[in-house]
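This part of the workshop introduces the protein records we will be handling. An example says more than a description, so a record of this kind follows:
>
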Amino acid sequence: MVSFVGDLVKGDLGVLEKCKIAVFESKASFVVLNFQKAGKIDIPAVTLVIQIQHVARAKPAKVRLCFLEPALAGALEDRGGLRKEEVSGTLVEALKDFDFALKK
């Protein structure tokens, strides 16, 4: 699980890049991007969030995004980085979605 806390701005791009590498190097089959405590997000950060999703899907891993604010959801959608089936309202819902995916 990756939890975003605070604003995601240009100064955070290095941290987001490290996050992308950590997801790439992990053996995770399930990845949750938790935006519960995220603030505003700048466009360059949106691009890296999309890259993190792409890296996770390529593993392949199941991906869920939770606690998306409408502005962030819109920014992701505008850039092709939002898959409705990967969006869960809360962390609990995201984890339940993974449980359902395991039973398929």
Residues 2-103 form a domain with the Transcription Regulator spoIIAA fold (CATH 3.30.750.24).
